[in-house]
Amino acid sequence: MFQSIELLVAAKWYVVMLLVGIPGWLLIARRSKELPDGGYGLGKVVGLLGLSALTWALCIAKLLPFTMPSLWILTAFMWGAVYYRRSDIIPILKKHWKQIIIIEIVCMVLFSVGIGLRVNKPAIEGIEKFMDSGLLNSVMRTEKGAPLDQWYG
């Protein structure tokens, strides 16, 4: 069912979600200390949305190309902020470590279910093929600014 290379790709995606989620937690850590998990679960979402919004804004402003090195640079910048404000996170981490482990287990299970569903039926079906293919191709060909118009490609 799974090939070893597919498992490696899935593991890379999960690690990337971790690398982006922890800086998002930092953004909301001070305001979410009273939450049962110290805001960790919400921080994962904030991190993913924050990196996406920052990348989109910089690409639309044509300040940064939409490439993998650019995403890694922005992620490193976010981790620099984590290092700078690590004293805010350590007490919360010590207080809520059990809840954080439970959240990671739940995230890993949900991620595995999603991967399992996609492995069992990976095909894009029907008329959505053309739209999805055109949209993905136009996004992948664009380095700066908004994606190219797929109909004029």
Summarize the structure.
With 153 residues, the protein is mainly alpha-helical.
Question: What structural category arises from helix and sheet content?
Answer: mainly alpha
| Integer average pLDDT | 83
Tell me the number of helical segments per DSSP (H or I, 4 or more residues long).
5
The arrangement of helices and strands along the chain is HHHHH
Oligomeric state: single chain
* Global morphology: globular
> Could you tell me how far the N terminus lies from the C terminus, measured between alpha carbons in angstroms?
37 Å
Helix content: over 70%
- The residue ranges in which pLDDT falls below 50 over 5 or more consecutive positions are none
- Main beta-sheet strand count, sense and barrel state: none
Q: What is the CA-based Rg, rounded? A: 18 Å
Q: Strand percentage, roughly?
A: under 5%
Q: Work out the number of β strands.
A: 0
